[in-house]
Task: structure prediction
Amino acid sequence: MISAILVSHSPKITDGLKEMIEEMTGRHEGIKILSVGGTEDGRIGTDPVKILEVIQEESTSDYIYLYGDLGSGILSIETALDLIEDETLREKTHYISGPLVEGAFAGIIQCLVDPTPEAVKREVLSSIHLMLEEND
Result:
């Protein structure tokens, strides 16, 4: 099982992205997409403890990938990673840097073929390079 955790300041963004990816790729038994948007009290923002709790809930997954939106959202992901006490869980949990929408989409598609961290990071990086080339 692969868990992909989408992190944003807004639950509307992560819920919508989750729905879009599932619609475009189909739901696959081996990949679970989770939406972690907003704060516990429903405000715009991110919460590292909430992110950590979701990571811990997915501890039986082979790999856990986190995709974030910007600024403090990424800091919240990094803080959540720092708070993981279980070394085995920490080793299989990875923040994938890149644009939230394109990065999560490319990374999740890659998991269907090769879910290793190296392959997922390479595919997300490749999608970023394609975006940059389109701007030339």
